[in-house]
Amino acid sequence: MNTLDLLKPRPGLRVLVSGGAAGIGATIAEAFLQADASVYVCDIDPAAVAQANGRHPRLHAGVADVSVREQVDRVIDEARDALGGLDILINNAGIAGPTGPVDEISPEQWEQTVSTNLNSQYYFLRKAVPLLRQTSDSPAIIAMSSVAGRLGYPFRTPYAATKWAIVGLVKSLAIELGPSNVRVNAILPGVVQGERMDRVIAARAQALGISFDAMKEEYLRKISLRRMVTMDDVAAMALFLASPAGANISGQAISVDGNLEYL
């Protein structure tokens, strides 16, 4: 096989992307569609799901709150039926969670962040792993963590706690599922351009009592390359991990962050 061919995911892959109708998830879904995969996405936003449905003949979409186990069970069943099985699970859905001192974060805010960011990953895994074991075509799980899964993140403790937990989950599952030929990796995006990051910057600026521009400049100073990454950068890493070039990569937490030095 030509070395360049190793970088291309096999046409016909069956891919499920949670939180895949907008943002990073939608960019990942589109990248796999361009690579001739069939893709099912779920999202909590009915309007985003409605826009996704019908946009591409190999794209299927459904509404789901991933923090609710019964809704995730339904998504897995719908994806299996729509795609005829499953080769790649991309556990992408998540929320930013609250910004503030830990003693001012309510139990409800903490529990919502943990339920959406961490519990949902388990809900997808418990139903998807049996399907992945059934496919012989290099099945893989890609979990979306964050650079906050390798660095401390003051005033964002619920978010950071879930993202560190995802890395531990991935490293444990890679050992558990390796004998079944299922690869498991985490992607740790850094400061990603877009509306969501703008909201995070604005919330943190408010918590610290500084301007949005000053807060944004502080984020950029922490990045060795002095620039944010794009959603396409993250999608490219997901494609690589699903390609033959990634066939022997498992149990890794891979940062796509321009070398974010600290948070």
From TrEMBL:
<dbReference type="InterPro" id="IPR036291">
    <property type="entry name" value="NAD(P)-bd_dom_sf"/>
</dbReference>
<dbReference type="GO" id="GO:0052588">
    <property type="term" value="F:diacetyl reductase ((S)-acetoin forming) (NAD+) activity"/>
</dbReference>
<keyword id="KW-0560">Oxidoreductase</keyword>
<comment type="similarity">
    <text>Belongs to the short-chain dehydrogenases/reductases (SDR) family.</text>
</comment>
<protein>
    <submittedName>
        <fullName>Diacetyl reductase [(S)-acetoin forming]</fullName>
        <ecNumber>1.1.1.304</ecNumber>
    </submittedName>
</protein>
<dbReference type="InterPro" id="IPR020904">
    <property type="entry name" value="Sc_DH/Rdtase_CS"/>
</dbReference>
<dbReference type="InterPro" id="IPR002347">
    <property type="entry name" value="SDR_fam"/>
</dbReference>
<dbReference type="Pfam" id="PF13561">
    <property type="entry name" value="adh_short_C2"/>
</dbReference>
